[in-house]
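Regression test attached.
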Amino acid sequence: MPASPPSDLAFVPFVSVQNMMRLIHHRGIENALRELAEYIEEDFRRWPSFNKTPRVASHSADGVIELMPTSDGESYGFKYVNGHPKNTAEGLQTVTAFGVLAEVSSGYPVLLSEMTLLTALRTAATSAMVARRLAPGGARCMAMIGNGAQAEFQALAMKAIVGIDEVRLYDIDPAATRKVQRNLASTGLTVTACASAQEAILGAQIITTCTADKQYATILTDNMVGAGVHINAIGGDCPGKTELHPGILARSEVFVEYPPQTRIEGEIQQMPEDFPVTEFWEVLVGTAKGRTSDQQITLFDSVGFAIEDFSALRCLRDWLKGTSYFERLDMIADPDDPRDLFGMLQRAAPSEDAA
Amino acid sequence: MPASPPSDLAFVPFVSVQNMMRLIHHRGIENALRELAEYIEEDFRRWPSFNKTPRVASHSADGVIELMPTSDGESYGFKYVNGHPKNTAEGLQTVTAFGVLAEVSSGYPVLLSEMTLLTALRTAATSAMVARRLAPGGARCMAMIGNGAQAEFQALAMKAIVGIDEVRLYDIDPAATRKVQRNLASTGLTVTACASAQEAILGAQIITTCTADKQYATILTDNMVGAGVHINAIGGDCPGKTELHPGILARSEVFVEYPPQTRIEGEIQQMPEDFPVTEFWEVLVGTAKGRTSDQQITLFDSVGFAIEDFSALRCLRDWLKGTSYFERLDMIADPDDPRDLFGMLQRAAPSEDAA
């Protein structure tokens, strides 16, 4: 008896890197960032309805491998992500990622996707969604300190979602800055390369720090930062990795994603355990204040949280509808009789004719 | 400028359900079970060298979704697995699974595989690897209480690894028993269908319990179990799900995989927190005793542990060498310059000719 062909349930849609790139161009990069920000904001607004847990990390001398699960009771999502700062020197990505969305009621996976690109997009979309609420009104210029893989995504998200028209770049490696200048050349942004962090932040209402050192570093010192700016700190995202002088944190109103994770991984790991922070979702739903004066320094101490990946996978699932930007992976064993897994295997034996 | 083709690093070997079935037949089912048992035993023997953590579970009204990670410092593995008892009634698998192996030094995934079939094999291989050490000498007959998806795998593993030649079957649903009889018809095992659990265990030196009820059930009562048997209890594997009367546990020498997980999920959740158990890896390396007399009742309270999945993925990776039983998934974004993720995306834009 020949094996029955697998049913639809056996196939999980898979979005490869190539298909992800096609899909992003199909939607347009800036539009994709705006749409992602909407999904992320929707999920931040229903923050209490998620099952939340700090990520499950496996540390080694060279880096970390993490699983980031969450669920809203209907869908379950998780991301696999690594962080290996030494990879760049070997021609590898510091961060690679993939993720899965599953149905809570059956436990069956319904989407598998590359998430290196998707994470780059969702990180920038989250930063801009937050900056739109916290940056001073009419912000037009962002300083971008650290010109690595995330830089262009940040610049375009701040353009598409906050409305900036100028980016001032600084990196200790001028080649990284040249790369960003080149990549942003035809985006409509005014791009200025600067010789120091201090020069980059001149006239900027938004300061984004995103450097890759896995150690306590001080990208911004206290006396560099004036009143009335929004700091978007995304580089400090694991224990022992920070970018800002504690004096800046003390002068700022600090906003975070999920305090139990941020106190371990974020800039505030430098501060006492009871250092006051505001959960950003509360600003969105109106139970906490955002910016309250033009003179205030607001600071988003962002480490990346599982709900943002969940939102991104949810958005991706909707993007895929009616497109062919995915393959179908035969990933779930699906015998005709669910108790007859062995029979399914037995019937798949090579027939004597075929042997 | 056209996008550069992705390098080898961008591709992750993927073993589909179809390829897993082909691969198992290629190696032979009984031989595959023996080889898996060897990999699992190897890893049990170096148990202290693993990074261990209880699985990360997300419970819902209908079931559970779990992530089971572990690492030996060189490779990292995790399995996604669900458990939804109600699925069977809807024609779905109670348990489906997939897993990933990654390189600790770079964080890059190196293997993605279906694991519904592979888990069925590794569960049976683990049971038999343990029974070979704990069952009374010369065990020839196994009682199989619960004739669901795991039953045939258990029978063949006990044949291939322990050397049994008879299986006595019992299930509350006679159709399940008939399914196992049919599937084992040409395997060389003597297969006997029984009308009760009590009848099934007559003359059996090994008693395997594997039923699917998610509630406290008593498949075996205390007075049914005589001296000198080995009980392989694999059905009780989550909080609130047990199969054995506590009186049996009290009379047995109980062996477990990883106590912090078994005390929550296994048969011993019915016993006091300090109920004495032996970690089975210690029997293998000689720091704890296994069976010490013919009259003893030994009991393997098995809930399934991440290291067994890690061993299975490691074995699978070796099985794949020199074969074509896998596809290559374009899962890892791999720009020429690792800092130039955006440039890679930009260069993948549809050209004007193609548009």
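Expected vs. actual: identical. The longest helix of chain A spans residues 116-134.
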